[in-house]
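$ ./design --mode recover --in tokens.txt
reading tokens...
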């Protein structure tokens, strides 16, 4: 999928495409620098392995590798926030904002207007009067029968004394619809959706508010819609229209912030969790193997990275993994249609 993303973006953003191609493939520094394999014991007793010394593109929007890794870190941060809020009796509400759109709606200007409108809402008198402790906003998009559907989720933290937090946020609906008109957009009932982050039976409760906010790389679209990662997957399997849509998505989201914390909330969380001693010690890292990035042994290992990681995590033989079938060969054996891309040289 990463190879496909780089191929799709090469014509419109060559620099970005080169970074995608190099991500987790090219070592930092000169040809003699080291690539290391580490193992770490997770709190649940399982072993997690990872490579160190490789370039990462840090693209949360277009790189499936980096998006997955960064999303997992953000999921943990958000779950820490939710645990902290609930331990102190605070109320947590999820607000979702969007606007009306159709197949002809261009994504880039629509996304810009949506983000600016959401910012205007947060700066309004009605918002300030909510008395929030803080909020975290996440932007995501899907594509379906009515075209691209960008929307913003906002986790809102209220003090316990607020009473019915959902009802209080619901009063912002008229303000949101008014703000949209200022940007020549409009919305219907679905443009403003609020629910408790603990609402039983709702999708957000099943998936988890932190996961809803952070794990966009593993989510799937609903009611026939597709996430950008599903578009990329389909493009990998030859869907040319999905590739066109992914390019439009990449151009629109380039440089955008994915997760935005309100001022002071992260600092407050860090201070209060430090006082309560909630921080867990960092698990010890064990060095399992090193390669010189310009060596033939690394060239061989680079084509078997998944096999090596699996061996390291399961207690298997790393030597056997390093000399066995390549990842592409193993995936081709498993893929029913045989459509597997080789790693970029």
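writing sequence...
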């Amino acid at each position: 999928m990463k190879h496909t993303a780089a191929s799709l973006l090469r014509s419109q953003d060559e620099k970005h495409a080169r970074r995608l191609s190099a991500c987790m493939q090219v070592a930092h520094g000169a040809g003699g620098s080291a690539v290391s394999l580490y193992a770490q014991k997770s709190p649940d007793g399982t072993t997690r392995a990872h490579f160190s010394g490789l370039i990462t593109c840090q693209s949360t929007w277009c790189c499936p590798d980096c998006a997955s890794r960064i999303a997992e870190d953000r999921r943990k941060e958000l779950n820490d926030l939710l645990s902290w809020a609930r331990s102190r009796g605070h109320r947590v509400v999820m607000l979702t904002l969007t606007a009306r759109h159709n197949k002809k709606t261009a994504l880039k200007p629509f996304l810009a207007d949506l983000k600016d409108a959401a910012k205007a809402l947060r700066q309004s008198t009605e918002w300030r009067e909510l008395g929030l402790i803080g909020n975290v906003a996440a932007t995501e998009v899907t594509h379906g029968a009515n075209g691209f559907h960008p929307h913003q989720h906002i986790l809102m933290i209220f003090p316990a004394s607020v009473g019915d937090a959902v009802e209080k946020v619901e009063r912002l609906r008229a303000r949101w619809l008014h703000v949209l008109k200022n940007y020549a957009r409009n919305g219907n009932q679905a443009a403003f959706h609020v629910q408790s982050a603990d609402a039983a039976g709702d999708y957000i409760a099943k998936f988890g508010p932190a996961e809803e906010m952070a794990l966009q790389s593993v989510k799937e679209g609903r009611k026939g819609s597709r996430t950008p990662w599903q578009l990329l997957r389909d493009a990998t399997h030859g869907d040319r229209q999905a590739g066109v849509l992914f390019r439009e998505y990449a151009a629109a989201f380039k440089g955008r912030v994915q997760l935005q914390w309100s001022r002071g909330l992260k600092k407050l969380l860090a201070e209060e969790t430090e006082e309560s001693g909630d921080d867990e010690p960092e698990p010890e890292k064990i060095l399992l193997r090193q390669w010189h990035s310009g060596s033939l042994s690394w060239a061989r290992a680079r084509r078997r990275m998944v096999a090596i990681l699996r061996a390291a995590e399961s207690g298997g033989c790393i030597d056997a993994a390093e000399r066995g079938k390549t990842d592409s060969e193993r995936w081709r054996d498993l893929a029913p249609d045989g459509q597997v891309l080789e790693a970029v040289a």
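exit 0
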